[in-house]
Amino acid sequence: QNKEFVCRGHDYERLEAFQQRMLNEFPHAIAMQHANQPDETIFQAEAQYLQIYAVTPIPENQEVLQRDGIPDNIKSFYKVNHIWRFRYDRPFHKGTKDKENEFKSLWVERTTLILVQSLPGISRWFEVEKREVVEMSPLENAIEVLENKNLQLRTLISQCQTRQMQNINPLTMCLNGVIDAAVNGGVARYQEAFFVKEYILNHPEDGEKITRLRELMLEQAQILEFGLAVHEKVVPQDMRPLHKKLVDQFFVMKSSL
Q1: pTM of the full predicted structure?
Q2: Fewer CB atoms inside 10 Å of the end CB: C or N, the chain?
Q3: Which one, of 158, 223, 157, 155, lies nearest residue 187 by Cα?
C-alpha cells in the first residue's frame, strides 16, 4: 500500500533472515534488491513489492551518551530505546571520480525516517510519518567518519582501563584498523583532498570545517598514542609482535600528519 515501516527484528537476527521471514509472510511479493527510492511505476504497479534494508537508530538523548562517568550499559540502553528517528546513507560520486583519491568526490545522501511513535513499543514496528533527505559533502563526510571513529576508540580504551572488557581483541582490532588504514593512505588521502591550496581557494566557505577536520586528525593521533599505552599493559605475550608493529606504524603515521 506504498507505506513505509521501521521494524525491530528478533535479537541477533541477520538482515537476510528477516527478509526471508517477511517474504514467507508475503509469498507473492517481489523483493527489491536496492535501498534507492522506488520510481513512480513501482508505486502505481499492480504487483506487490517489498523493499527491505537496514537503518541506524538516532538516539534522542545525546547528552546522556556524551557525558563522562555514565556507565556503558546505560549508554547502550539509550542508543536503541525511545527512538523516533532512524537513518540510512547512500554513498555516491558527484562529478568526475578521482581514481587516485575517491574521498574528493564521495558524497553521501542521508535519509532520515521519522516514526509516528517511538520504538520499541508494544508493537515491533511503526509507520514512517515523514522522511527527510540531505546531501553531505565529501568534507562533511570525512569529519563525521573521524568523529565516530574517535568516539569508538575512546569507548574501547575506557572499557579496557576499567576492566569491563574480558577480551582485548575489540581494542586490538580497532587500533589495527585505524593505524593500518592511516598508514595505507586513509588520513593522508584526507590531507591530499582537503588541505591542498586548490581546495581551500575553491571552497572559501569550508574554512571552519577544514579546521575541524585538522583538529580531529590531531585528536585521533593523541587517542591512538594513549590507546597503545593502555594496550601495552594488557596485551598477552603471543600478541606482542603485533603490538610492536602497531607502535612502529603509528610513529610513521604521526610523522606524516
Answers
A1: 0.82
A2: N
A3: 223
**Domain count of the fold of the chain:** 2
Q: Is the dihedral of CA 214, 218, 221, 226 positive or negative?
A: negative
* Chain centre distance of CA 153: 13
Give per-residue pLDDT as tens, 53-98: 999 999 987 777 777 778 878 888 888 899 999 999 999 888 888 7
Who's near 55: CB < 8 A, 6+ residues apart?
A: 6, 86, 87, 88, 113
Helix locations, 100-163, DSSP H: 138-161
182 shares its domain with 75:
no
Domain coverage including residue 69:
5-136
Residues 112 and 190 in one domain: no
Say how many C-beta atoms besides its own lie within 10 A of residue 98's C-beta: 15
Amino acid at 185: G
Pair 105, 189 in one domain: no
Query: What is the C-alpha to C-alpha distance for residues 42 and 48, in angstroms, rounded to an integer?
Result: 9
What does the alpha-carbon distance between residue 209 and residue 141 come to, in Å, rounded to a whole number? 11
CA 228 to chain centre: 23
